[in-house]
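Q: I'm a student working through a structural biology exercise. My instructor gave each of us a protein and asked us to get a predicted structure, then write a short paragraph describing it. Mine is Gamma-glutamyl-gamma-aminobutyrate hydrolase family protein. I'm not confident about reading structure output yet, so if you can add a plain explanation after the tokens, that would really help. Here is the sequence I was given:
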Amino acid sequence: MGEKVIGVVGNLEIHSEEGFPSYHRIFANKDYLNVVEECGGVPIILPFTDDYYKVKEQIKLVDKVIITGGVDINPFYYGEESIINGGTIIPERDNYDFMIIKACEELNKPIFGICRGMQSINVAYGGTLYQHIPEIKEFYLQHSQKSAYDVAVHKIKIKDNTKLYSILGEEEEVNSFHHQSIKGLAPNFIISAFSNDGVVEAIENIQGRTIIGVQWHPEKMYLNNKGMKELFHKFINVYE
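A: Happy to help. First, here is the predicted structure for Gamma-glutamyl-gamma-aminobutyrate hydrolase family protein. I'll explain a few features afterward.
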């Protein structure tokens, strides 16, 4: 069958230096590319375009897609306005994520969403977000950690009879780098993991091709955590 080609959604960096004011770059953190290669896949960074025809042509070239982390999703997409503690919004990234999800739907391609990527999936399919979880008093754990990227800072409880449970079991320790989280779950999805304070940590679709989202960053943990590497392995080589 050959190696699976994995499209990795890029991010936009607006870089300013002498001679290059407002220089735009599309990039992906190397961890995403490394873990795809480690698990036998072929990573390709997917650059932004606002042409849906070209997005579909991009998706035709890959077997599966990883939607990476990044800045906040514009709350207009789920019927709200940005609150005072909202973060940065990059409209090009929002538009591209939603076109990627639509193209994957039409072309029947599996999706793995990480951090913002999970939130994009939820919003694209009709869900909503908490814009700033430190303002929600029941969320008491550290979800935007100060420790190194590969350090776990809280635990998650994983639901039985889910793909995530089959890989990680009923409990896992994870890192955490987010200030937003799922509020209203999109139709036809289930919550497959929670943190102990109730933040949604993972979702899966109910039927059809595989769509998995996780709120933490397993690409930062896979070198020292067999479960995180197995999560990528299953997505790349097993799940359809």
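A: Here are two points you could use in your paragraph. The radius of gyration is 17 Å. The first strand starts at residue 5 and ends at 9. It's a good idea to check both against the output above yourself.
Q: Great, thank you!
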